[in-house]
Sequence to fold (361 residues):
Amino acid sequence: MSAFEKRVSCQEVASLLVFYACEEVSDKERKQIEAHVANCHACAAQLAEERHLQQTMVAALQPADELDSSGILLSQCRSELAESLDDLYAPPIRERWRPFDWLRRGMALRPVWSGAVLVVFGIVVGAQILPWMRNGNNADGQAVNVLAKPSITKDQLDKMEVAGINFSPSPDAGSPSVQVHLSAEQPIVLSGSVDDSDMRHVLTYVVENGERFDAGVRLDCLEALKAAARDQQVRQALIVAARRDQNPAVRMKALESLRDAASDDDSRQALLDALEHDANPGVRVEAVNVLVGSLRRGDTEEVALGADKAPQSVKPSREDEDPSIERVVRVLQQLQRKDPSRYVRLRSAAALRQIGPREVQ
Fold:
């Protein structure tokens, strides 16, 4: 039971008059104050002074009217005050016990020493404990079985992508070392030379399925396969690329890679097909260069072979010559007369002059 419910004194009312003037009292307190003021002239005079002061302050221009005309700041301050009072009277939260909390606090207070201790601890673990654990695991002296990696199948290649190819020259002027990065659910890095069956299988697969791979990747594969052009599997892949690839640069690179195997019947047929049917003049010029180079290399080999034989060797007649050479001459003559590219016509004429002495024999 409050004091208002018993007997309200002037001292008690005087302390509430300022709140009454600001309308910050409850309905019950308002009724009791009004009943007391009606019978007490001193409290009524003090209430009049409080109201006059309140009206004067309200009439005066306040900085808050310009800074917070909507009252949002005042509402926020009241809300924060209420939250602070709630937190003040809320029961304290009991923190759970942390066994290494003292260590964490000590490290936070001394970061330099803590870092040095951690570095020393890491060195000790790496230099002493880990070797001891390895020696303990292999103390029985048993050999570790290493299984050979399985060969890459065509089904696996159908689901893989080539992320990149790296080359490194061979020290003995042989096939270069190749590293192929294959992207799949489990990425694979394949290293070796073109003589390796898996490596050759992957490279020829990329060349033969050019629509699935980037043109730059196909060019890198052709560069790697060039050293093994005499291999039948590699040669067939190069021929497929020269005939079917949609990129002229790749077809041109495939013909260039066939240079060492150009004397083979299949390779020469692919070169002739490029001369007669390829729409790109650069590819046709490359085919002319490879064909002429193969014929000149054949002459060099015949000369070297003839030097080892007796002087009375019989010169071959035109009937004994390779019939494919006659077809090369016919195709070059046709290109010299009818090819739409002026450079192809000039290159064909120069090629005919180069192989002309052979036909005169």
Summary: The chain has 18 helices and three strands. Residues 149 and 198 are 10 Å apart (CA to CA).
